[in-house]
Amino acid sequence: xxxxxxxxxxxxxxxxxxxxxxxxxxxxxxxxxxxxxxxxxxxxxxxxxxxxxxxxxxxxxxxxxxxxxxxxxxxxxxxxxxxxxxxxxxxxxxxxxxxxxxxxxxxxxxxxxxxxxxxxxxxxxxxxxxxxxxxxxxxxxxxxxxxxxxxxxxxxxxxxxxxxxxxxxxxxxxxxxxxxxxxxxxxxxxxxxxxxxxxxxxxxxxxxxxxxxxxxxxxxxxxxxxxxxxxxxxxxxxxxxxxxxxxxxxxxxxxxxxxxxxxxxxxxxxxxxxxxxxxxxxxxxxxxxxxxxxxxxxxxxxxxxxxxxxxxxxxxxxxxxxxxxxxxxxxxxxxxxxxxxxxxxxxxxxxxxxxxxxxxxxxxxx
Length: 366
Known about the structure:
It contains 15 helices and 10 strands. Strand 6, helix 5 and strand 7 form a beta-alpha-beta unit. It is 39% helix and 15% strand. It has helices at residues 52-56, 59-62, 75-83, 94-102, 148-160, 177-184, 195-203, 229-234, 236-255, 258-268, 279-294, 299-304, 315-327, 346-349, 354-362; strands at residues 31-37, 65-71, 89-93, 107-114, 119-124, 139-142, 169-172, 190-194, 208-211, 223-228. The two termini are 19 Å apart. The strands form 2 sheets. A 5-stranded mixed β-sheet has the order 2-1-3-10-4, with helices on both faces.
């Protein structure tokens, strides 16, 4: 857990269907808020866009928020805390959001921080596999059977006309170094994992050839921050404040010196620091994980070129994730896109002073 207790100001602006709400920056006591993360450990600056950055750089405080972050085991646990009133916001992979919404839980996403799919299939770079199609008849290692990576693979197999029960074998190998060992020893010929896991493997000497066959590039909407629909109805200004703080954090993550972001993370979350590594190696591996995450956050388009909006997600990306999980039997029902993501806070997120936030981030030192 962590919270930030520095000085503060607050501006409140919520646009879209809610209209524009604005007030001058004034000194006031901060509102205590709980944000629950659907993973047990916040272990890298790759998660900084909701944790170390808005805490350590003061974005939550400047929106009048005193945020406590709780990490729990799984998106379902995070959703349960939200529904029970023990938290005001949750943040996690969108599979948990879509699953909850399909069961009539009144939860909706309002800020999508990772719009692109961050899973890939990898083989040894110096190995014989040159194309994804070469994996027919081979064994693919996956972190766990079930969930979005399994259904993503099945979608790829269907596109290729493969029978998943006959043309390829998929086995669970976990998401830590034994999975890399399984690939090196030939127990599996490929791995499907997410970005920061491959970064860890690269730090430990892995060299890979990556594949992202169709429809993988089209399945986005990977990480989102969420709220109850009743909170939007009762207190839209609160959601707008959180949305702006998260948007500023995405900008800062794109622009700040990576090593300073890693230093900030371990300063605020010291228990996540690997105890077996030197200070230099801690920063090296975390830098790899941070760089891996950034490549799926569309930072050039959203932050620097401004051709896409901060925190937004294309309807087609949401629909692709929904259809993937529904066809795999993970969703109780398929709902309209706006039941999963509420765009009314996108304008508020994009009214922040992006050039000033970039300058502040570039000058930041932990």
